[in-house]
Design goal:
This protein is mostly helical. It has helices at about 1-10, 15-40, 40-60, 70-85, 90-105, 110-130, 135-145, 150-155, 160-184.
Length: about 180
Amino acid sequence: MVENNINRVAPSCPLSEKDFDQLIKEYEIELRFVAYKYVRNWIIVDDIMQEVFIKIFLKWDSFEQRSSIKSWLYTVTINQCIDYFRSKTVKHTLLIDDLEKMEVLHTDPAAETEAIQQLDNKWLYHTVNSLPTQFKEPIILYYFKQYSYKEIGELLNETICVIKNRLFRGRRLLKELIFRQEMG
């Protein structure tokens, strides 16, 4: 069993390649499923697992053996998933992709209706996109992706009260922008 072999290796010593390979063989599948439960995308899981294995190899000496190896590996994997969601790149990419899809939506095959819908979507896309990021993100997540306050809070690492406040202020800013554009 790998855990027994690995336990014989002192965490203060560097992890040998052989022990590291055994560790990966023993736990890789479990850790991949843990990561998938968080990110729900196998391609992203591959990237996360690369980071997890690098951290495990580099941080082996920080394993204090207060818990089992399995528990430590799960913690490293979960923390990497959380770091993935906290990254600004992920937030920006998810939101921009959704806005760009919104820009080209078509609901009615009639040419005139389609043109009007496309103009409305472009206008809405640009109006929402012109909001400051702190208001734009909650509006997109709540109204276009139908996330709950709690889900938005977890994704943006904010409390529910902060999310509600940003939605309120974002709607108010959006109304002001719409009013100015209609009057101008």
